[in-house]
């Protein structure tokens, strides 16, 4: 069989490796950090920095196709790798999603609704942005933010200096606060020949900026369920995308607003492991190696709950609960805010 190279050795890389292995592929992880969770299940690991040209070339040589578990891979590394092996999903998806401004411009050019936004770096630019966008609003770093890190909420103009100080000079974006009733996401897959398959939208609850639970089915009227799937398809087609993407949406009384996209498997898609015959990880692997997509139809209702930090103490009790699947990432230390695992509570459909 052939070998799939995965950039990033976290839990997503780990679960991608497991799925690849089930389909008979070998996996090779590239990860700068020591003892990555994916390293415990992959066939091979390269521990090296993204600036290490020789290590990148040796990695590319050792694999047949390259995919990734996170979107912030340095451009120089992508240039090196792409000259030797296909990278799927492709560069355009990474270019668009690495920067919140390019992402929002891309989405609004597609005719999709996003929060009002403006690029901000200086005090003057923030004042000007607040004149048009107003408060409440959120200042976010354009790049590298995740789990709500690199964000400051502005409830009034008076919060501006502190919010700007939080950004520490990073290029930022001011976003108008979207008055949503709840949040949903669509996990969508697109195959190498352009077919699109979406999993059922899930409803997401965040606590302290971190995803806490995803509940399937989401509370969505049928028309919005259709909108969500059509919006996701539009995004994947526009990018000539190959692989799985997470599309985060706000539900408002005026319709769906796109929050952000993630060009990879997504935490809010973990429910598919126990709710569908083919889960998001297998779907992603199928897409990047050029197999046809599988049946992602939902056979059960699921509530996915993340196990973060101290939640690990609940594992012994969870293991004896009926209809609960426990997924652990093999991380040594349960630090506050660290995603250690998740559980899927499953209710088979009648
Ligand atoms: P992730 O871990 O999903 O990548 P992130 O750090 O990129 O998170 P966002 O998804 O931009 O952060 O924001 C995190 C959460 O903050 C959102 O899921 C939502 O609950 C809230 N939020 C972000 N932007 C807005 C907005 N413009 N209006 C209202 N709420 C928002
Ligand atoms: Mg994000
Ligand atoms: Mg998000």
Overview of the molecule:
By secondary structure, this protein is an alpha+beta fold. It has three domains: 3-87, Rossmann fold, CATH 3.40.50; 116-176, Dna Ligase, domain 1, CATH 3.30.1490.20; 182-348, ATP-grasp fold, B domain (D-amino Acid Aminotransferase, Chain A, domain 1). Helices cover 29% and strands 29% of the residues. The chain is built from eleven helices and 17 strands. It has helices at residues 11-22, 53-62, 75-82, 91-97, 100-109, 123-133, 160-167, 222-238, 272-275, 280-289, 315-319, and strands at 3-7, 26-30, 44-46, 65-68, 117-120, 137-141, 151-154, 172-176, 182-190, 196-198, 202-207, 210-216, 243-252, 255-262, 300-308, 324-328, 339-348. Strands 9, 10, 11, 12, 13, 14, 15, 16 and 17 form a nine-stranded antiparallel β-sheet that branches. The chain has a four-stranded parallel β-sheet with strand order 3-2-1-4, with helices on both faces. Helix 1 crosses helix 10 (280-289). The longest helix has 17 residues, at 222-238. The radius of gyration is 20 Å and the shape is globular. 43% of the residues are buried. The mean pLDDT is 97. The site of adenosine-5'-triphosphate (ATP) has 16 residues, from strand 14. InterPro entries: ATP-grasp, ATP-grasp_carboxylate-amine, ATP_grasp_subdomain_1, PreATP-grasp_dom_sf, PurK, PurK_C, PurT/PurK_preATP-grasp, Rudment_hybrid_motif. Catalyzes the ATP-dependent conversion of 5-aminoimidazole ribonucleotide (AIR) and HCO(3)(-) to N5-carboxyaminoimidazole ribonucleotide (N5-CAIR). Pathway: Purine metabolism; IMP biosynthesis via de novo pathway; 5-amino-1-(5-phospho-D-ribosyl)imidazole-4-carboxylate from 5-amino-1-(5-phospho-D-ribosyl)imidazole (N5-CAIR route): step 1/2. Keywords: ATP-binding, Ligase, Nucleotide-binding, Purine biosynthesis. Residues 104-289 form the ATP-grasp domain.
């Amino acid at each position: 069989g052939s070998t799939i190279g995965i950039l990033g050795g976290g839990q997503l890389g780990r679960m991608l490796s497991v799925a690849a292995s089930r389909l008979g592929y070998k996996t090779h992880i590239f990860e700068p950090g020591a003892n990555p969770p994916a390293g415990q299940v992959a066939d091979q690991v390269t521990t090296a920095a993204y600036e290490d040209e020789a290590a990148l070339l040796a990695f590319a040589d050792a694999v047949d196709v390259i995919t990734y578990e996170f979107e912030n891979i340095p451009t120089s590394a992508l240039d090196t790798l792409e000259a030797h092996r296909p990278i799927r999903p492709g560069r355009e998806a990474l270019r668009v999603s690495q920067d919140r401004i390019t992402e929002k411009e891309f989405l609004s050019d597609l005719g999709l609704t996003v929060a009002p936004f403006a690029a901000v770096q200086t005090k003057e630019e923030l004042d000007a942005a607040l004149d048009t966008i107003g408060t409440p609003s959120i200042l976010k770093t354009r790049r590298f933010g995740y789990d709500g890190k690199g964000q400051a909420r502005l409830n009034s103009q008076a919060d501006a200096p502190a919010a700007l100080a939080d950004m520490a000079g990073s290029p930022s974006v001011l976003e108008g606060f979207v008055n949503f009733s709840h949040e949903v996401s669509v996990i969508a897959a697109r195959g190498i020949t352009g077919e699109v398959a979406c999993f059922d939208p899930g409803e997401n609850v965040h606590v302290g900026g971190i995803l806490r639970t995803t509940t399937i089915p989401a509370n969505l009227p049928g028309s919005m369920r259709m909108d969500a799937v059509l919006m996701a398809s539009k995004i994947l087609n526009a990018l000539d995308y190959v692989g799985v993407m997470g599309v985060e949406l706000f539900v408002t009384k005026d319709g769906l607003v796109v929050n952000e996209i993630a060009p990879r498997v997504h935490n809010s898609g973990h429910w598919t492991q126990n709710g569908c015959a083919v889960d998001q990880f297998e779907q992603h692997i199928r897409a990047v190696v050029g197999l046809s997509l599988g049946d992602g139809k939902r056979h059960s209702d699921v509530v996915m709950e993340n196990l973060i930090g101290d939640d690990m103490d609940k594992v012994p009790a969870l293991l004896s609960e009926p209809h609960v699947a426990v997924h652990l990432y093999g991380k040594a230390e349960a630090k506050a805010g660290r995603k250690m695992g998740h559980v899927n509570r499953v209710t088979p459909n009648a």
